[in-house]
Design goal:
This protein is of the alpha+beta class. The protein contains three helices and twelve strands; from the N terminus they run αααββββββββββββ.
């Protein structure tokens, strides 16, 4: 009876092993106590090992694809799970792969840092017909700015990564101003970054222009989206 219960708990055991256990159980009366203890130990261990055979979904942090390293920095783009059909979300990451600490100017901040607009980041989108669209980040909640503007500065220590989650509908065509929404089809998307120094020039932030801003252009890897 005990053997039937244990075997029912371990359906993954092979038929040969189950037959072996059953045969040996029938000969129980001819076994000494030490042999029986060892046999039950093997069965329990087999059940425990079968329970541990769970698929793993762990991934190495270094497995993220990225664009080429440019002056110590590299940029990567991946599709986030938080997007919706026709409006995917992306994780845009800039990593300092160099040995020197730098600062990034990602765009501008409004209302003393209460609103951050990373308009130095753009997307390049190519549709199935080969047409390329260069899209700019626009926060439609603030079509015009009448108050204070500050540089969106992010310190980036060597070995560190700055990651932003952005949606496709936050980008527009600079020529038409149209918000993007994908129709059914295949698309290739990459991200770009334009690194500049301080630009706002507020009187109480004069020292901002002396910061070690990274200056140049970055291009990420491509991702494929099929709607």
């Amino acid at each position: 009876m005990k053997l039937k219960i244990l075997l029912s708990l371990a359906p993954g055991l092979s038929g040969k092993l189950q037959n072996y256990m059953a045969t040996n159980f029938e000969a129980d009366c001819f076994m000494n106590m030490k042999t029986k203890i060892n046999l039950w130990a093997v069965l329990v261990l087999s059940i425990a090992l079968l329970g541990c055979r769970t698929p793993s979904t762990c991934h190495s942090p270094g497995s993220r694809q990225s664009g080429a390293v440019t002056d110590g920095l590299r940029m990567s783009l991946s599709v986030s799970r938080s997007g919706n059909p026709g409006n995917p979300a992306f994780e845009v990451a800039i990593q300092n792969a160099g040995e020197k600490d730098v600062c990034l100017n990602l765009g501008e901040m409004l209302a003393n840092g209460k609103v951050m607009i990373p308009d130095k980041i753009g997307l390049n989108l190519t549709d199935s017909g080969g047409k390329l669209l260069e899209l700019d980040f626009v926060d439609r909640r603030f079509p015009g700015v009448a108050g204070r503007r500050d540089d969106y500065m992010v310190p980036l220590r060597s070995g560190s990564t700055c990651t932003l989650e952005l949606r496709l509908d936050q980008f527009v065509s600079p020529t038409t101003g149209d918000r993007m929404k994908l129709s059914p089809g295949r698309y290739e998307v990459s991200a770009r970054f334009q690194g500049d120094g301080a630009e706002t020039g507020n009187a109480d932030m004069a020292g901002m222009k002396l910061m070690n801003f990274w200056k140049g252009k970055l291009q990420s890897n491509f991702v494929v989206i099929v709607e």
